Amino acid sequence: MNEVPIDPDVVELLSELAPPEQVAAADLTPEQHRQAGREAMAYFTEGVTPLSVHGVTDEVVPGRDGKIPVRVYNAETPAALIVFMHGGAWMTGSLDMSDVAMRRLCHDTRSVVVSVDYRMIPENPFPAPIDDTYDAIVWAVERFPNLPVLVAGDSAGGTLATCAALRSRDEGGPRIDGQVLIYPGIDDDYDAPSMVELSDDVPNSREDLRFFIDQYAGTEAAAGSPYALPARAESLAGLPPAVIAIAGHDRLRSSEEAYAERLQAAGVPVTVQLDLELVHAWFDFAPRVPAADRAFARLTTSIHELIHRGIASA
């Protein structure tokens, strides 16, 4: 599947974080998953000085089902608005855990970044996460008008970002000028080549991914919905231009590549960033791994190009 080995710094990082004994995702409680996520993020960002930006405020979006916390990172002269959904298998993650990455995204793209603290499963099943995502986008566009609008996210957040773009297209919602999808979950094809061919050295076993995806998109309410998994959409025509960052050693890789091909076939401009030496979650450990840091910089360059495309189309 991938002849380029995993970056040695990634191997070392993962080995340091590996628990003494592997436990299946299905055998942990949501709070245990969340605690593990907090501990991992603390390790990834240990000793890192967060970048300074023009301003940071915590605000509240009046969502359809209640208040949605968001954190707004302001650039002095913003080039765009980026609404960002964090990763974490729809079950973990927070505004605080995303803070270092969001500050860098704001600083490096010179954009307003709205980081969304959407409701998570299993306490808040589908469609709660996508409803919060969509409502936050509507709010952000009204709050920061006259800027190119990008939706973005990593992993589960990338899924929410592109599903929100689908929903906005279908419901005549806000204009979205671009989507930044960082190793997003696309479908529930557990027999895709990358699902079965990658070695056990790759984070997230096939069964662990099955557990998380089924928890989110396998419920009765989510059945068949393209707003749960975007591969279910009959057509991708009319979606905004996309940047898709794909990790070489990621079980989601095959589905992401297939989604990029479908977007292109539908006439959607797509930039694919394939980082062969990296694994899922590299966006989080960029502060500790030079190869991931370089991938972040490449992503920033692609976002700049997406912003300029949005400015031109507006």
UniProtKB/TrEMBL annotation:
Active site: S155
Residue span(s) of domain Alpha/beta hydrolase fold-3: 82-283
Keywords: Hydrolase
An example Gene Ontology molecular-function term: hydrolase activity
Family recorded in the similarity comment: Belongs to the 'GDXG' lipolytic enzyme family.
Protein name from the UniProt record: Alpha/beta hydrolase
